[in-house]
Specification:
By secondary structure, the chain is mainly alpha-helical. Helix content is about 60%, strand content about 10%. Bound molecules: BIS(adenosine)-5'-tetraphosphate.
Length: about 190
């Protein structure tokens, strides 16, 4: 699992990890954005919340992951990106994995100072125009992260799952060097 606050570079690093470690990358943010782009009922429900910087309801995202996880698990392993984001999502994930005899075996957390996160998202807004990269939505996403998502790290620490935190600053290549080092160590 790759973990971190909004804009910490989870998606950026996950794409590289997928290439190098042949894990199947499952990004709930990408999945939701695809639903919004296709104008599906899920996309219509999720789109408004995402644009406001709110998390989508746990039940909605858990159902999506439940439908995609079995196929993703057929390969060498799954890299979860942006999920779970609440304690309830983590509990749902644990029970889905336990049903298949699997578990979360490693959490990689990216640490980036708050001011840099905001700069990155505003920079992305200027390039990609993502609906949730406005100042108001960014502030709300950061609030939700501190209120609901941070607790997911403790959830896994309590279970004894290895949680490695690395500096997410510097260029994407610099960060990936650190990622590679901790993943390499954990899989020995
Ligand atoms: P996500 O798609 O997960 O969005 P994110 O947290 O902003 O992205 P990430 O950390 O991956 O940052 P990125 O690599 O893009 O979620 C979007 C929304 O979907 C959520 O707010 C929520 O509404 C909803 N959602 C998703 N999952 C959910 C769930 N489980 N439950 C409920 N709701 C859910 O990098 C950010 C920017 O920084 C990019 O522009 C990138 O180019 C740049 N960057 C990356 N690394 C850099 C580096 N080292 N230096 C400089 N810039 C860098």
């Amino acid at each position: 699992m790759i973990f971190g606050p909004p804009g910490s570079g989870k998606g950026t690093q996950a794409a590289r990890i997928e290439g190098e470690f042949r894990l199947k990358h499952l990004s709930t943010g990408d999945i939701l954005r695809a639903e919004v782009a296709r104008g599906t009922p899920v996309g219509k429900e999720a789109g408004r919340m995402m644009a406001a910087g709110d998390l989508v309801p746990d039940a909605l995202i858990v159902d999506i992951v439940r439908s995609l996880l079995p196929e993703a698990e057929e390969g060498a392993g799954v890299l979860l990106d942006g999920f779970p984001r609440t304690e309830r999502q983590a509990q749902a994930l644990d029970s889905m994995l336990a049903d298949e005899g699997h578990k979360v075996d490693f959490v990689l957390a990216l640490d980036v100072p708050g001011a840099e996160l905001i700069d990155r998202m505003l920079h992305r807004a200027a390039i990609e125009g993502r609906s949730d990269d406005t100042r108001e939505a960014i502030a709300e996403r950061m609030r939700e992260y501190h209120k609901l998502t941070e607790a997911v790290l403790d959830h896994y620490r309590r279970q004894g799952v290895p949680v490695e935190t690395i500096e997410g600053t510097g260029s994407p290549d610099d960060v990936f060097e650190r990622v590679r080092r901790v993943i390499g160590i954990s899989s020995r």
